[in-house]
């Protein structure tokens, strides 16, 4: 019966309609035989309300409906809102992008190139230091040892040698960083070129530290093979001091890691198509970031200057919020460009096997998880050469973490403050402020309730991406403007 | 070994650090016995890069990470962006909300009240018509029938009676709708009061139609019990003509449905706390919608007038996008206020059992699914009294759907055009435009690939909520402004 079919499946209109139609056709056939006038058998009596049912959003409802549609809606609203801002921006400012307007100075490029070329020299110096020490160690090992006294003497020789080596390495590494920082701060005006030089110097400084520490302990293991914990198996193919070669060091210099190992897991071949794709991603995202900065971030930043100057809190808040979306997109694009595209391309060219440059930091349920997962190269360096040694010496984990973030804060302030010629301490304070945030969000990370993780994740996003980054950018921009006026010639 | 423990779980810093510390403590204990100088056993040699691993965003990766964090980020960015717009709005306009400024006219309220009181009279008239017809039918059934000829005669009498009944019902229902529409269009200035009156009239018009059709077919079943499909079981407790009472009709008038049944599923008691909560939701959301309209929608609409007047496409697009977020929020709040809060409260008071006023329309993968799920009362009316009868008469499902949307388009235009005193046909065209959209998205609904459903869902949101609604609101507002100037006295 048509009406009954509809009762059982009221939602499937089309199917029902077919059966209704079939019924109707059948009845038409019947009536035509009886020569009655053609009349529908349909009756307006179906009991559509035949049972007690609850609205799906009520608490009484037996099942909670999926809300996937609202996720799609959120994406669409975000796209629409930002598309609107793009139109608004275009109507207000027109096209701000201008390749020739940028204020590159000839001297900046020359100095930057010299600094880039100087840094490998410090690496070479580190190699020379290690080569000399390795030679001394080989001699000691070559002699047959008989008594415990002689062994103790060896240890003392090792320790005094290490004192010299450590001094030379420190001198070499610090000189590398100090010269670059000095030149960038006083002679390189352009913040982009300055940042590149400073970043390269900091990376090489970290690499020299790791190189020196690791080789010291490899040497110790060679001198005293019995009393020490065994070395990782992967080092067996290149035992100390066979790793002290210029090729080995160059590989470490170019490899996407800050942690020195005499041997790394390697891939069997270079997939050049993979490299090309990653480099294309990097190039595309770099252009995207540049467009976004020039067309959207720059006007917002410029418009904020007056408001910061008079400390109008509501306006500053409004500016930080407007900036937060842009800086968030730039940050995400920059993360992808550097950690996914560039480091993967570099790793592929170097046949470097371990590509875990980051894990899923976007799901971080606490600030602690975030700092352990977004930048694995730096995290692993800090863990291996700062945190674990300090804990090994009896420091509390909290104190060791504090030390890690203190060092990190200094490096961040150098990386931002030196190229912008403004040591205003915002990056430093921002990094140290992570410690209380980590402490506050740590309990959320361990909660079993998914709500705790969601709250932790939201705290992470708000503190880091929606407030921290744009506020920092705003303050450094303000300091820059106060010192120099505009970075670009305004049209 | 500390270094090995770290190799296996490099991410669990704290746990590792504890074991490192324990090791260190053990070694300290050992060395103190041997009176050696206190020295850490920690070695900077751990092989953190011990295996080939892929970046989690690479295609090579063995598993795709969860992206739940980005969902949280989207929510936060939406909140931040809208919070910014709220601050911007406040800085531009200050507080626009003003209870006393609203342009209520005394006459509007008086006329509206009279219209509201008149409508039940038409229901009473419908009852009188049905009562008379039921009396005649009872007489016919009372007589013992002998021959087929007499039965055929009965049928003819029934049909001629139905002609009179149908004429009277049509006259009554149309008069009800026509009088209200006329008064609202020409004499009630305020669009809010007008909309309420028109909505009530349309609802009662639909109810009278359903009442007349259903009772006709119940009567037919009474006169001709053998040749007809059986009636739904739920009607057994109140067979025709025992349902023709004033109480039964009043219940149908107030019940949250447009489909007449002599019996409805009922709940056993009224939970007054449930009613109170739903009414509180309704009140709160109504205030929220009013605030949103006055503070955010009104300025955007007013600022759009000049742009529409000069047909500046980019600006109109920008305005529609700015309006789309606000109209979307108003729409969602309005949907919840009406379909979840108000109808559930009404159903609870009436002990009406079937609360399925909507299903999860937000997940609609096509426009067809949306129109079948967002407004179940109207959908069920259209299905029972327009679509299915037409298909039963041999119409194609497409033609029957076309008829449904044509009727719906007329009612929508009446509901919007009459209270705003502007028959500009946008609501009419918008509803008819659903037919091609339904046809286009129907294949997506049936795709097995979830991507098809996501695309269909996005088409639904964009066409309906992000473009259709704000554009419609803009055009009716423009027409209103062109005719009357502002609806509120501007401060």
UniProtKB/TrEMBL annotation, chains A, B:
It is a multi-pass membrane protein. Residues 1-38 are annotated as: Disordered. Its main location: endoplasmic reticulum. The active site is at 412. Pathway: Lipid metabolism. Keywords: Acyltransferase, Endoplasmic reticulum, Membrane, Transferase, Transmembrane, Transmembrane helix. Sterol O-acyltransferase that catalyzes the formation of stery esters. Belongs to the membrane-bound acyltransferase family. Sterol o-acyltransferase subfamily. This is O-acyltransferase.
């Amino acid at each position: 019966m048509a009406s009954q079919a509809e009762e059982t499946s009221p939602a499937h209109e089309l199917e029902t309609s077919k059966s209704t139609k079939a019924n109707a056709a059948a009845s038409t056939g019947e009536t035509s035989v009886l020569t009655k006038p053609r009349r529908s058998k349909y009756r307006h009596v179906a009991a559509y309300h035949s049972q007690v049912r609850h609205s799906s959003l009520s608490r009484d409802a037996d099942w909670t409906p999926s809300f996937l549609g609202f996720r799609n809606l959120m994406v669409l609203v975000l796209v629409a809102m930002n598309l609107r801002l793009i139109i608004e921006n275009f109507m207000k400012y027109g096209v701000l992008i201008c390749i020739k307007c940028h204020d590159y100075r000839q001297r900046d490029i020359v100095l930057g190139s010299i600094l880039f070329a100087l840094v490998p020299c410090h690496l070479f110096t580190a190699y020379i230091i290690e080569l000399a020490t390795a030679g001394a160690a080989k001699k000691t090992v070559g002699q047959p040892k008989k008594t415990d006294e002689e062994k103790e003497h060896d240890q003392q020789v090792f320790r005094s040698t290490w004192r010299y080596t450590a001094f030379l390495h420190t001198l070499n590494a610090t000189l590398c960083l100090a010269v670059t920082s000095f030149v960038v701060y006083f002679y390189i005006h352009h913040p982009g070129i300055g940042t590149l030089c400073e970043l390269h110097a900091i990376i090489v400084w970290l690499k020299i530290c790791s190189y020196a520490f690791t080789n010291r302990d490899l040497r110790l293991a060679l001198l005293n093979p019995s009393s020490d914990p065994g070395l990782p198996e992967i080092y067996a193919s290149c035992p100390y001091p066979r790793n002290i070669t210029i090729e080995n060091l160059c590989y470490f210099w170019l490899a996407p890691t800050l942690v020195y190992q005499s041997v790394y897991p390697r891939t069997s071949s270079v997939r050049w198509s993979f490299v090309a794709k990653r480099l294309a991603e990097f190039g595309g995202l770099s252009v995207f970031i540049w467009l976004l900065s020039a067309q959207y971030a720059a006007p917002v930043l410029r418009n904020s200057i007056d408001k910061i100057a008079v400390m109008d809190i509501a306006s500053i808040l409004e500016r930080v919020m407007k900036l937060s979306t842009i800086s968030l997109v730039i940050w995400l694009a920059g993360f992808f460009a550097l950690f996914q595209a560039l480091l993967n391309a570099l790793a592929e060219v170097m046949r470097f096997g371990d590509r875990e440059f980051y894990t899923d930091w976007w799901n971080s349920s606490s600030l602690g998880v975030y700092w352990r997962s977004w930048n694995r190269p730096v995290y692993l360096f800090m863990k291996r050469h700062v945190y674990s040694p300090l804990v090994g010496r009896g420091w509390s984990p909290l104190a060791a973490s504090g030390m890690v973030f203190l060092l990190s804060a200094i490096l961040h302030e150098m990386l931002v403050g030196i190229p912008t010629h403004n040591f205003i301490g915002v990056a430093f304070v921002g990094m140290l402020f992570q410690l209380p945030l980590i402490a506050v969000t740590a309990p959320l990370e361990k909660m079993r309730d998914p709500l705790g993780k969601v709250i932790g994740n939201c705290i992470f996003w708000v503190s880091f991406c929606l407030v921290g980054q744009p506020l920092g950018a705003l303050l450094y921009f303000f300091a820059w403007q106060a010192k120099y006026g505009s970075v670009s010639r305004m049209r």
